[in-house]
Amino acid sequence: MSSPEAAASADWSARADEAALSVTRMFGQRLFFLPGTHIAAIERPSGRLKNLVRPWHYWWQAHYVDCLVDAGRRELTRGARFDGGSRPSAGHLASRLVTGIRLRNFLTVVNNYYDDMAWLALSTLRLEKLAEATRHTAGRRHARIRKSLTLQFDSASTDDLGGGTFWSTKRDFKNTPATAPVALYYARTGNTAKAQSLVDWLHAKLFDPAHGMYQDGLRIGSNGEVVLEAAIYTYNQGPVLGALLELGGQANLDRAAGLVDAVARHLTRPAAVAPGRTAAVLRCDGTGDGGLFTGILARYLALAAADRRLPERTRATAAALVIETAQALWEGRRAVDPAEALARHGAQWVFSVFPETPAGQAYPTGAAIELSTQLQAWMVLEAAAAVKGSATKGLRTN
After folding, report:
1. CA angle in degrees (0–180, nearest 5) for 263-361-265
2. In whole angstroms, what is the distance from residue 368 CA to residue 353 CA?
3. Residue 1 pLDDT > 60
4. How far apart are CA 268 and CA 161, in angstroms?
5. What are phi and psi of 168, to 5 degrees?
6. How far apart are alpha carbons 119 and 47 in whole angstroms?
7. Are 173 and 211 in contact (CB under 8 A)?
8. Cα(296)–Cα(340) distance, rounded to whole angstroms?
9. Cα–Cα dist 186/160, whole Å
10. What are phi and psi of 187, to 5 degrees?
C-alpha cells in the first residue's frame, strides 16, 4: 500500500519527464512543415492537414509553452534534457512554439480574448527568464511580444464597472479569467499598483464569502444591466492565488491562505491514489477548455506550497492537493498499445481526464485524445515536481 509519504517522496521530476515526452511526441509537430517552428495538434490521432482546419485554441498553446518552461527549469537543475541529448531542449522547443503561435495566429500575438493573451504573456515572460538562465538570447523578441500585449491589457483594464479587465474585444464582460492573469502579469512586470487595483476589484466584485472563492464575472446586458455570472471554476482561483503571492503584503497573503483552504474544502473529491488508499484530489472539469482548468490551479498551488510567508498548515494543504492529484493521475495512466495509431507519434502514456477515473475508461484504446487533458496531467506532474523540489531546496519558484 502506498502511503502519503511514499507519494511525496516519489521521483516527480522523472514522472514529469515522462508526461513531457508523451505530450510532445503525441501532439508536437512543425507548423506547415516549416523549419524552426513547433505547434501542438489539438487532437490525436489525426494528420497535420486535418489539424489545421480545427479550432485554433491559442490559449492551449500558451499553456504548452508554460509546460515546456517547467521542463526547461528542471533540465537546468539536472543538466540533462527531458527528451535525450540529441533532441532540442525544452526551452528551445518552447521558443519554436512561440514562433509557431505567432505564425499560426496570422503573424501576430494579438487576438480577440484578453485572457488568452495574458496566458501567452505570462508564459513568454517565464521563457525569457529561462533563456537568461541558460545564456540564450531571445530577449528582444520577447520584449516586443510583451510590449504588444501590455498595450492590449492597458486598453482592456478600464474603469467600467469600477475596474477589472474585459474578457474580449466585445467589451461586454469583465471577469476573473481575464482580470486575474492580467493582474499577475502586471505584478511580475513591476506594475504593482495596477496589479493591486485589479486584485482589489476582484475581491470587491467577485469574491464569494460563502465559499471563500472567486466567481466568474460581471456581464453587461444589451440594456446596460449588469448580470453576475456566479459560477466558480478551478482555474479562476489559480491566477488569483498567484497574483496575491506575487504582490505580497499581509492582506494579500491572508487572502491567499484563505483561498487555499477554500479550494481544499470546496474543489476536491475523493479518488484512489494507490491500491487501498483514497485521498482528496482536485476536481477536474472535463474535456475541451475545461481539460486545462485544474492544471492551472495546480500550478499556483505549487507556488503556495513553496511560499514560506504562508502558514505552515496552508503550505501543507497546498502541497498535499498537488501531490495527491498528481499521484491519482499517475496511477490511472494507461500505456499506449503499439498497435494504436497513437504509437506512430511515439507516445508512451495516456492520462485520464479525471484523477478519480482510470485513463483506460476515459480514453479507451482507439479513442481520440485531446491536447488539453494531456497538458493538464503534465502540468499537475510538473507542479508535483516543483513541490518536491522546493521542499528539498527551500526555494520559491515561479
Report:
1. 10
2. 12
3. no
4. 32
5. -145, 175
6. 27
7. no
8. 30
9. 19
10. -60, -40
**Cα(212)–Cα(41) distance, rounded to whole angstroms?**
37
pLDDT at position 20, please?
96
pTM: 0.95
Residue 158 has pLDDT above 90, yes or no: yes
Sequence-separated contacts (24+) of 251-257 with Cβ below 8 Å: 252/199, 253/309, 253/310, 255/203, 256/304, 256/307, 256/310, 256/314, 257/310, 257/311, 257/314
